[in-house]
Amino acid sequence: MYIIVAGGGKVGYHLTKTLLAQGHEVVLIEMDRARAQRIAEELGSVVIPQRADEGRWLLEAGVERADVVIAATGNDEPNLIICQLAELIARRTGGRKPRTIARVNHPKNEGMLKRLGVDATVSTTSVILAMIEEELSPHPTVHLMTLRQAGIELMEFIIADNSPAVGQTVGGLALPPDVSLPLVVRGNEAIKPNDDTVLDAEDAIIALLPIDRESIVRERLMGQTV
Amino acid sequence: MNIVIMGSGRVGATLANRLSKEGHHVGIIDITSEAFERYLDPEFKGRTVLGDGIDEDVLRKAGIATADAFVAAAHGDNHNLMAAQIAKVIFGVKRVVTRCNDPVRMELYEALGLATISPSLIAARSLYDLVMDERLHERDVAAEIERALGSA
Questions:
Q1: Which tens digit of pLDDT belongs to each residue from B38-60?
Q2: Rounded distance, CA B93 to CA A158, Å?
Q3: How many CB pairs under 8 A join A and B?
Q4: Same domain for B102 and B59?
Q5: CA-based, 20 to 30 A from B62: which of A48, A98, A173, B108?
C-alpha cells in the first residue's frame, strides 16, 4: 500500500519505520527540519521536511494515489485538517479517496473528528486509560474490541473458582438474547459453545455484547457487578 | 442577533464590543481570562466563557445552540477551522465566518462552505493601496497605516 504519515514525532516515526519494514511504500511529512533530517538519515529519502497541513506538500507527496493518510501529530486540530485536505486534494486531482486515520490526543475529540469526516481515529489517551483500567480491575475481564458504530463490544471473561457460572450450562446462564458467546477457550482448546455446554473454572469466555449489557453479563459469569 | 465569537484578542474583542454596543447578544470564548480583561470594553454586556472553542460544552455555554452566527477569530488557523466546522456541522449555525491567516489554506475553508477573512491579505492590500497612492504626501500616512493594521 502507499501510505502518507503526517507528523514525525515518536508515534509518526515508529509508525513509518514499522510500515516500511512491512514492505509498504511510505512518505513521512515532518515540519521540523532537524528532526526530518535525522529520520531521513536513518530511514532513507522518505521524508518531506514541510508542514502537512499545507495542501501543496500533500500534493507533492502524491496524495492522489495514496491508499491511506495517517495524521499523527501531537495536536488534534491539525490532524483533522490534514485528513480533510488529503481527501479534498485527492478528489480535486481525480484520485481516489484515501482512507484517513487521525491520532486523537484529547479523548473528547475522538467522536468529533469522526463526525467531521475522518474515517478512523486512534486515541492514545483512551488506549492507555483502558489498559490501566484493566490492570487495576480486580475482575479478570478484558475489553478486546469496541465496535463503536454498532454499540457492540467484544470482551473476554475468565471464570473464577467461586463463580456461579462454574458447572452451569450456557443456556442456564439466561443471558439476554442480544448477548452471544461465540467462543470458550479451555486450556489450549477452543470450543464453540451451545446452550448445553457446561462451563468450568478457568474457562475464558469470549462474549459479543451491546455496551450497556456489560454489567449483567459480568454478574452472570463472574458473580459480581462493578 | 445571537452571535458567538471564539477568540478575545484584538480582532475578536473589537468585534464583540461593537456588536454588543449595537444591541446584539454576544457570547465570547477565550482560553485566558486575561484576554477578556485586556480587550473587552467595561460596558460589554455579553457573556464571557472561559475554555476551548473546539469543546462542545464550552460552545454550548457561550450560546451556540441558539446562535445566528459564529465567528472563529482565534490565532491558529487549524483551531479556527475546527471550531467553525463544529459550529456549522454539529450545531447547524447558519452564518459561520472564519479568520484565516494563511491564504493558501483558504481554499479548504471555502470548500467546506465557510466564509473566510484573511487579515494578512487585507492588511497587505491596504498597505499596497497606501504605498501606491499618488496623493500619498498629502495624507496622514501614519494614521492610515495605523488604521489598516488596527483592522487586521
A1: 999 999 999 999 999 999 999 99
A2: 49
A3: 48
A4: yes
A5: B108
